[in-house]
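I wish you would study the pair of lines that follows with an eye to the fold:

===
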Amino acid sequence: MKFLVLMAGIAALALTGSITPARAEDAPPAQAESAGLAELRRALDGFLVILAIDPESEKILQVKSEPGGVEIVRPLVYIDAEAAYQDWLGGGIPQDWPVVAANAIDVIFETQGAAVWMGQSHDAAMAQARIDQPALFYVTDAEGEPVMHNFETGARMPLFVRHSDAKRFLDTAKRNLAAGAGGAPDLVVSHTDMMSTLQAIISGQIIGVRLISPEANTRWAEQNQQGMRSLIDYVSDGQVLMQE
């Protein structure tokens, strides 16, 4: 995977903050920080995650994980609202717990980077990854060069939570490039480990990427702004398709 690379530097996460329901357009506050953390903010600009909150303790839902064979209790962060909804349907999230969308950078601050991040099982299968060690999907040409997207802040390489979103981006890029070059280019969807990517951004090894959360996360953030907190009100992907 050919990312834009800087010389590696060591950057520590000395993080504080609090979790509040996010607006899709919210931006994290500016502050003096390392180059790696500043780049992480740019990479996570607009990236929303989903949290189930214990109404008594006001803490994020905790789960047990076993890194290195040692059992640790950590906050659970859903990178896909559909994954949270399926967990809620299956009893993994208590029915009466509020569920909110939040900016990922704020969650990293709140948890000091020590959380379990979870996506959908389908996307984990596409990357042959564990559901609690999610992958990110991106598009390259036949030589492995990344396909960029022009965001408001400039050209960056999009990294998608969902394989289907990466495939949609590939189809759009293929049409656009074919119109300019007179032939459809050979593009492919590849994947990389999410947590390794975030760590590489912080250490300065990776620049020029942007993580893209699913539209479902934005929908739930908008429903939060309307006062909805229970996933009983969640508009699923299936419901959206039926309404189209």
Remarks:
- Strands lie at 48-52, 62-65, 72-78, 99-103, 116-118, 135-141, 149-151, 154-160, 187-193, 209-212.
- The helical segments are 35-43, 81-89, 104-111, 121-126, 163-181, 194-203, 215-225, 237-243.
